[in-house]
Design goal:
12 helices, 15 strands, alpha/beta, single chain, binds pyridoxal-5'-phosphate, four-stranded antiparallel beta sheet, Aspartate Aminotransferase, domain 1, seven-stranded mixed beta sheet, Aspartate Aminotransferase, domain 2
């Protein structure tokens, strides 16, 4: 009476996602710069809101997340009826792929695009086509060249993770214009709040102007709520209807919704986080370059440092770990020679810069 049930073969077609590490053996005070969580922890108002709802966690949440959607709508000046919330934006990414993709269809992304797209697409039985990049930046013509009659979804994170690079808004408008109208374009703007480029549009303009574009956003980065799992999508009513049919009825917990509403209301949080990020990112980038390593230009809350070889990236990673600093190896993204370093507090950035400086002198 034994024997193990067989899962669908697609389940084994991708290596499981490995998140940023948070522990080092024998180190008590770890500096975690591996998961692009905001530099300042959770907003104080969100902590207070969680304490307030703690006595009510026996209640099921509002399945429609009405208050949260209204708060998002007010904050970003969007129609709440065109918003769906999710258990992180990963939830919504996966639902879009399950709903619009499936066996026999294809998803297009850029060469070093966000890995969750590939994982979710393969699980759904899809083929993934990756377009070449230019200077680690998505190349719109190369992406268009990967489109075939089987293409159902095109995913673009802007700014992208793990490269940090930004595609100009005009190029994204051109991508939408040149894609067949039945292809869904998903613009993942997880790092939108960090972008200072005055020309930047996270996707609102295209969603408003078309029926076939989705913008996804998250509370995991600048809003500091990664542990609660909260994201949202903005799209035309027909797409919202599809997401509301495919999501699980209680995919956003009550505490997550309460903390999200409070995070949006935290006065000055986004501005303070963004200006810290812009300054600290420039300082850290300059210091890493002075230490002798190339750093890619970033519009997000992390930097991609190029150590030139896989061995040197591994040695630098070990050197950092020995000093209690955890950054991200990005070999799974096809960048084994690079390290992705999240912008933390000034002290955390200085510790990372000091360690890389020392590493550079030892390995000159
Ligand atoms: C961090 C990140 C997300 C956010 O994921 P959540 O599930 O909302 O935590 C989405 N896309 C990209 C590109 C990211 O880097």
């Amino acid at each position: 009476m034994t024997g193990s049930p067989a899962a669908r073969p697609a389940v084994f077609s991708v290596p499981p996602y490995v998140g940023g590490e948070s522990h080092l053996n024998g180190v008590s005070r770890v500096i975690k710069l591996s998961s692009n969580e905001g530099a300042f922890g959770p907003p104080p108002g969100a902590i207070a809101a969680l304490q307030t709802v703690a006595s009510k966690i026996h209640r099921y949440p509002d399945g429609g997340a009405v208050e949260l959607r209204n708060a998002i709508g007010r904050h970003f000046d969007l129609d709440p009826a065109r918003i769906v919330c999710g258990n992180g934006s990963d939830d919504l990414i996966s639902l879009l792929i399950q709903s619009y993709g499936g066996p026999g269809t294809e998803l297009v992304m850029s060469r070093h695009g966000f890995l969750i797209y590939e994982i979710a697409a393969r699980l759904a039985g899809m083929e993934v086509r990756k377009a070449a990049e230019r200077d680690l930046t998505a190349d719109i013509d190369a992406m268009l060249a990967e489109v075939t009659p089987a293409t159902r979804l095109v995913f673009l994170a802007n700014p992208n993770n793990p490269t940090g690079t930004l595609v100009p808004s005009a190029e994204i408008v051109r991508l939408r214009r040149q894609l067949p109208s039945h292809v869904l374009l998903v613009l993942d703007a997880a790092y939108a709040e960090y972008v200072e480029d005055g020309d930047y549009d996270p996707g609102v303009g295209l969603v408003d102007a078309s029926e076939n574009t989705v913008m996804t956003r998250t509370f995991s980065k600048i809003f500091g709520l990664g542990g609660l799992r909260l994201g949202w999508a903005y799209a035309a009513p027909a797409i919202i209807d599809v997401l509301n049919r495919t999501r699980m009825p209680f995919n956003v917990s009550g505490p997550a919704a309460a903390a999200g509403i409070a995070a949006l209301a935290e006065q000055g949080w986004v501005q303070r986080s963004r200006s810290h990020n812009t300054r600290a990112r420039a300082e850290l980038s300059a210091r890493i370059q002075r230490a002798g390593f190339h750093v890619w230009p970033s519009s997000a809350n992390f930097l991609l440092a190029d150590m030139e070889t896989t061995d040197r990236a591994a040695a630098a990673d070990l050197h950092l770990r020995n000093r209690g600093i955890i950054v991200r190896r990005v070999a799974a993204y096809g960048l084994p020679q690079c390290l992705r370093i999240t912008i933390g507090t000034d002290d955390e950035c200085a510790a990372a810069a000091d360690a890389l400086d020392e590493f550079g002198r030892q390995h000159a």
